[in-house]
Amino acid sequence: MRRQMIAGNWKMNKTLAEAGDFLKELQELEPKQPARVVVCAPYLSLPMLAEESAPPVEICAQNVHFAPSGAYTGEVSFEMLKDIGVHLSIIGHSERREYFNETDESLNKKVQAAINEEFEVILCCGEKLEEREADRQFEVVENQLRADLAGVAADDMYLINIAYEPVWAIGTGRTASAEDAQAMCQHIRQLLVDLFDETVADETTILYGGSVKPDNIAELMAMKDIDGALVGGASLQPESFKQLLDYEAK
Ligand code: PGA
Predict the structure, then answer these.
(1) pLDDT 10s digits, 140-153
(2) Cα(11) to centroid of ligand 1, in Å?
(3) What is the DSSP string of 217-243?
(4) What distances in angstroms separate CA 240 from CA 1, 16, 29, 212, one per listed residue?
(5) What confidence tens digit (pLDDT) does each residue in 57-80 have?
(6) 27, 31, 106, 131: least surrounded by Cβ within 10 Å?
């Protein structure tokens, strides 16, 4: 059975001391919901967080390079993350696609490398505003995922979580309606049936992200094909992150 996940993506926020203080507060919590509790932190805080964190909190990177090592200034490899006890990373966040030239081609290499390294990822996808306005959202997301997952075997899909994050909803306060988010997550699950099989589709965790807040998470989580949330702004304060983890299931 697929597991739920609530992941806070801190993006480029928090010093080491701030990250440590946040973890202490989070660690005191006994979440009401069974979802995995994931903190996606900047690289500099990862060794400390990986060392200090305890279940149910899991620590996640925000990006990783596909090559095992070499002349890639500024990059970090899967092996380096595993070495500090981190076994999960976001890949393909729309901010990486938009500002750092992340392509579906490089993402496919990251997916392949993650599988070789037995490393779990949260693979992000999502359409831009103009694409939704042109009613092209399903085609856009499907094309991204077909390219990102090319060549992946069904048996390796246990390492892949998918996060649907419409770009127009990220950091804008404009959440997709629960129905629109559900429609896309259902479409993604159907695509997994086409690309792999019913079992993979059934077992893959699909998150929604884009202005998720304590007051809309319950409605999103109640949707059949939404298994979790990738949260930016509302994950930055311990209080608000705790409220997300403790949402009242509908
Ligand atoms: P947001 O960010 O919750 O601030 O919209 C979500 C994300 O980018 O993962």
Answers:
(1) 999 999 999 999 99
(2) 9
(3) HHHHHTSTT--EEEESGGGSSHHHHHH
(4) 28, 20, 12, 11
(5) 999 999 999 999 999 999 999 999
(6) 27
H or E, element range at 51:
helix 46-52
Q: Which residue type, as a one-letter code, is found at position 92?
A: G
Q: Is the CB of 228 under 6 A from ligand 1?
A: no
Residue-number span of the structural domain to which 118 is assigned: 5-246
Pocket test for ligand 1, best of 100, 162, 230, 243 (most atoms within 8 A of CB): 230
Q: How many CB atoms lie within 10 A of CB 242?
A: 16
- Catalytic site positions: 93, 165
Please state the three-class secondary structure of 32-87 as a single string. CCCCEEEEECCHHHHHHHHHHCCCCEEEEECCCCCCCCCCCCCCCCHHHHHHCCCC
Write out the two tokens for 224. 């059949």
Residue identifier of the C-alpha nearest atom 7 of ligand 1 = 232
> Which residue's alpha carbon is at the smallest distance from atom 6 of ligand 1?
232
Report, as an integer, the average pLDDT of 24-46: 93
Domain of residue 48, CATH code: 3.20.20.70
For residue 79, the model assigns a pLDDT of 98
Average pLDDT, the chain: 96
pLDDT over threshold 90, residue 1: no
Ligand 1 proximity of 233 Cβ (cutoff 6 Å): yes
Nearest to 245 by CA among 79, 98, 31: 31
Query: pTM for the full model?
Result: 0.97
Closest CA to 128 of 74, 166, 75: 166
